[in-house]
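Hey, weird one. I pasted the Hydrogenase expression/formation protein HypE sequence into the form twice and got a warning about non-standard characters only the second time. First submission, copied straight from the form history:
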Amino acid sequence: MGADNSAVVDPGAWVCPLPLRDSPNIVMGHGGGGAMSAELIEHLFLPAFGDAADAELGDSAVLDIGGVRVAFSTDSYVVKPMVFPGGNIGDLAVNGTVNDLAMAGAQPLAMSTAFILEEGTPLADIATVAATLGHAARSAGVRLVTGDTKVVDAGHGDGVFVNTAGIGIVPAGVDIRPTRAEVGDAVIVSGDIGVHGVAVMSCREGLEFGTEVRSDCAALNGLVADMIATGVDIHVLRDPTRGGVAATLNEIAQASNVGVAIVERNLPIPDAVRDACGLLGLDPLYVANEGKLVAFVAPTDVDLVLDAMRGHPLGRGATVIGECVSAHSGMVVARTALGGNRVVDLPAGEQLPRIC
């Protein structure tokens, strides 16, 4: 039987600012959540999917099913190493999926878990990951309702990879989307940034910084529930994972067609993270987080939201880092300590690959 060439994609027909045809093979940057990831989605996946693809393509989708608004999300976890200070790939998988649902305002209900295991991986390691995953699910209040297991040949995996999907219910009246940021909105971050990325990198490279940096991996659905309970119309929520706060702010600025102005001195960066980033030549704004959120709310609602956040253990460090402005639409600009301005670009790839 002859091959059907009707679906063959011609790389020569791709047109974009950073043409995929200039990089004919997948590189690590394509999985970094930055410009290269966006390019791959926009110029390869979306044309291939056609009308089957949803237009918004967020971290989670909100679907109306029989009059009930259901949030749905899926994610894969390939962090290296799979055990790191403050967690492992098991609780990372649960918390990451719970957080994607929570960023749509949903209360997570159930998850699937699929494991891809490398031949030769000690059963004790898998048992540790599974136990941690189960504990994280119980703590977040989600049920593990279906799953799958596959094994790949030795040398063709990296111990354990985990794929998840999750569903949750969005309460009536809640409308939280990356397209809802408005000029004048305050930009709030829930606490210290850059912690997860530095924790994983320090473990991966055997680096010591005088004090142990532990991942901030945590489920944020309880914090979001407290924020929603204030009755405030929260415009946007995002968890700044791959690409860090910088990538998240750029994505929101572009989705809402507003400018975002932040103040560097207001950024909550722990000394250990700042020192580690200085040593490694990294910008903390681009380093991944796994237990923090960014919120956009109207200026009149800031105090009420901050009080609710600071009353929750995962939001005690909540602070305003900037605002939405009419200037430089679609861009993020930071006010430096010296009084100048710098553009905070969307990263091309990722400073720290395989961080989640």
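That's the output from the first submission. The warning seems to come from a hidden character in my clipboard, not from the data itself. The CA atoms of residues 44 and 50 lie 10 Å apart.
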